[in-house]
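Dock s-citryldethia Coenzyme A; give full complex structure.
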Amino acid sequence: MTKKSTIEINGKKFDFPILEGTTGPDVIDISKLYASTGNFTIDPGFTSTASCQSSITYIDGDKGECYYRGYPMDELAEKSSYLEIAYLLWNGSLPTKAEWTEYADAIKNHTMVHEQMKNFFNGFRRGSHPMAILTSVVAALSAFYPDSIDVNDLEQRQISARRMIAKVPTLAAMAYKYSIGQPFIYPDNSLDYSENFMQMTFGVPAEKYKVNKVFSKALDKIFILHADHEQNASTSTVRLAASSGVNPFASISTGFTSLWGPLHGGANEAALNMLKEIGDVKKIPEYIKKAKDKSDPFKLMGFGHRVYKNYDPRAKVMQKTCHEVLEDLGRKDDKIMQVALELEKIALQDEYFIEKKLYPNIDFYSGITLNAMGFPSTMFTPLFAVARTAGWIAHWKEMYLDPQNKIGRPRQLYIGEKPRKFIELKNRN
Ligand code: SDX
């Protein structure tokens, strides 16, 4: 027997079905609300609104847990690899040995980009933010790979998905090289996914690149932690863009655009800049005061989350990874890390943060880690985008396989002018 909810409007009652998922909050299916009642709902920021059904990722915000296809993310971060997670998110199950070999080889065969794409980079000022470059060149993939843009062709969907997993790291490394005036470094397919990204980013033609295994393992964990996260702003952007049927490369490029915002994927860069600005544990109380002051727009970057009302499980893994990288560098007492740890300790004991359930999120420690590994802060969001590409394409595929899929077209509450007559300029005073 389907559970139902009853809404009463002007004395008239309307029943709507309640849908139950595997776990998490039930949803009230209001798709027939307008047809039945002539009313819309409104929910700025979608704080109480599900946009779709999904089986990819589940976040338990109260417990501070996150699952990729049912597997605990923190366990995957310790035991799996980013490329295996990309397979898991796309296919819904972990690969067998044969499936893994086929997939890993296929990705390696797509790591290079069309040689002419280099010309794209030359059009940008050297100092351009790598995200400004990436949002453009990822969309341009549709110009270079027109043989895999038919969204209704299952085989082309898979080819374009594999091309993005394979080529986005290459493009991200090229954006970095271009910004520092160094030559592009081709992929080296004898390396694994994260090692290859490190060598394309930090390698130079003049020397053989030596992989730092602590760094490449840390980067792979960071990629796993950032791979997917339910219907966050950038994933919802990809879904809405893709709902019009536009090609996969253009759809995924919209995710880059949304992720770049400082409230979303740009928070890692903003969090490190904030920690550097604080600079000393003695100045922490002043910044905590600013964060609590309603008249001050300052927020603690890397703190708070729409879904997590407990400690972000990714932040726990990030903090541990950060210690590992700093230890490898002989920087156990890194000043910025000390500020971050003390800031977290003070904030978590403060009534304001306790009452509003504000905890460190993934961005609080990722910036310190990436900075210690040699990445400039402008590369933090591109790295987030490299990782989230796996989630974006998995949601893109799921949306197309959803029988309820239709073009996204929200309605509105109109609060503008009533209809009025046009007065020609000559008749106006
Ligand atoms: C990511 O959606 C995802 O899953 C995103 C992400 C992913 O993997 O895709 O997890 C990645 O984007 C992580 C979040 C990174 N952003 C930041 O760290 C920026 C700082 N955080 C805040 O801007 C904020 O916490 C958000 C944007 C993350 C969440 O905002 P919400 O859910 O809209 O919550 P809110 O802004 O309404 O905050 C609730 C209250 C407010 O106070 P009141 O108006 O109720 O009095 O808490 C306050 C806020 O002012 N608040 C903060 C705060 N975050 C929220 N106050 C100080 N510092 C903060 N960081």
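Observed: Strands lie at 4-9, 12-19, 27-28, 57-60, 65-68, 71-72.
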